[in-house]
Amino acid sequence: MSEHLTPYLMFNREKWAELRQSVPMTLSEADLPGLRGINEKLSLTEVEDIYLPLTRLLNLYVGARQGRSLVLSEFLSQKENKVPYIIGIAGSVAVGKSTTARLLKALLERWPEHPKVELVTTDGFLYPNAVLRERDMMKRKGFPESYDIRRLVQFVSDVKSGKKRVEAPIYSHLVYDITQETKVVEQPDILILEGLNVLQSGMDYPHDPHRVFISDFLDFSIYVDAEPALLKTWYVERFMKFRQGAFMNPSSYFHHYTKLTNDEAVVTAAGIWDEINGKNLSENIKPTKERANLVLQKGENHLVSTIRLRK
Hints:
Blueprint: E1 8-12, H1 13-17, H2 44-76, E2 85-91, H3 97-108, E3 117-121, H4 129-134, H5 149-160, E4 166-172, E5 177-185, E6 190-194, E7 220-225, H6 228-243, H7 262-285, E8 294-298, E9 304-310
Parallel strand pairs: 2-6, 2-7, 3-6, 7-8
Antiparallel strand pairs: 1-9, 4-5, 8-9
Helix pairs in contact: 2-3, 6-7
């Protein structure tokens, strides 16, 4: 397909960075450790070049949506009903979408027009391990059928309808299961929804077709992308770092991996990628990329190299 026929506008880092204009840097070096993932080298330069222009764009989109809501309220002669702007962030395991989500939350909530920003991950809507074991789906965790999609859609629908108080279940990566805790969402200005499945639609759930999906409620969607070979490398590197960190906790579901030699651990991590995460990426996650409003393409060292923005 020739470039002028693509539905996306293409930007390299330099051209994209110019679109920041006068947006001020509201983060400091001290803020970054709490935002970056275990295997990432997020820098203030990356924030300035990639994420400040993105927050400027999102601020304009949110303002336009707020303006439309005000117009509708005036037309109906009703008090304006606060409806959150919902941003979806999708991408593979190990691509850094959680870091992108945390970073956007930290930047967007510093804008006076929308100070209340909530972040929810779709991990909380996975079926509990007990259910997955009963259905022989533990090795399909993260695949479409492993989510309680009805509960997830109901959550997003309630938030989007302006419901004053909505609860989302919380997932623990330490115990690798759903917890008894919930996150309360109370009419935020912006809700960031991050997960493998936020761009999936009816065709991705043939076993349980619905009329409505998460993607139907998104105002803007971002897909964080990288080449599969890079993703596998990052996954293995992250696995090895977890062995020296979170996996050392005796309560960790993956504590047994600390007893492997380094070579055994590398082979194990690569096997998990090939059998589960890589397969899920090619079958279920990657096909949703073209539905995104914006694609962040990463290269070496997790640096964004190109940006594609839907026209």
